[in-house]
Amino acid sequence: MNPPPVLHAERLTKRYGRRTALADCDLSVPRGHVVGLVGPNGAGKSTLLQLVCGLITPTSGTLSVLGSPPAADAAHLARVGFVAQDTPVYASLTVAEHLRMGAWLNPSWDVALARRRITEAGLDPGQRAGRLSGGQRAQLALTIAAAKRPELVVLDEPAAALDPLARRDFLRGLVDFVRELGATAVLSSHLLGDVAQVCDHLVVLCDGRVQVAGPVTDLLATHHRVDDPAAAPAGAEVVWAEPGRVVVRGPAVRGGAPVPLEELALAYLSRAAHPAGAAVTR
Known about the structure:
By secondary structure, this protein is of the alpha/beta class. The chain contains 9 helices and 14 strands. The chain has helices at residues 45-52, 74-78, 95-105, 111-120, 134-147, 164-181, 192-198, 216-222, 261-273, and strands spanning 7-16, 19-29, 34-38, 60-65, 80-83, 152-156, 184-189, 201-206, 209-215, 223-226, 237-242, 245-249, 257-258, 280-281. The strands form 3 sheets. It has a 6-stranded mixed sheet, with helices on both faces. A 5-stranded antiparallel sheet has the order 13-10-12-11-14. Strands 2-1-4 form a 3-stranded antiparallel sheet, covered by helices on one side. A hairpin with a 2-residue loop joins strand 11 (237-242) and strand 12. The longest helix has 18 residues, at 164-181. The chain is globular, with a radius of gyration of 20 Å.
């Protein structure tokens, strides 16, 4: 029997007054993957992740995280790590003091893992967090999340403000720790190149709705680029069409070309942003 998904949502909806941030989202995320959650600003990514972490509650629909309601109790909270967009750390505390605080707050804290990651990241234990670079703060926040030994780590655009080198190092650290712990990570980002580098499962969110989701290998195998919508075989879905770029979903297309993950995601984002160019089925 397969283990239950790490996240499972049915008709998940969140409204803020008259504004709908998420609308009837159905989503199932398997365990043991690095999941890329992509979409433009205002797509609902942060709202979804806050629901997952139990920071806010749904307006309607259901959501389970690791088989339970989000933030069901203290034990459940310990199974989830969270790195927010601004990788928050305490400016007045040293790196070592952050680790001591993490050990005090988390019963499953892995002292050896925390120390090793700090060393690998080149962080000075005596340095105050307020004097660290953006990349160093991100590495410290990731270390704190990893040393909890969570089953799920949620990252809300943690690398958006980092320079390319710091972003690369952060993403490498994320992949390494997910593999080491056998955890699942959900990485929210509007940087499609980052997602293509490290994620093996993709969720595209736009206008508060899931546009497409699934394992990256499956999505790449079922999407193709053609020159003309008329070249799509019977039963294929034209996801997006514009001069020189037509993306179809369905059977292999004779003369078609593979679609890079970034282009695949852009096709669904374009369709959501411009309904007049919406998909048709051949």
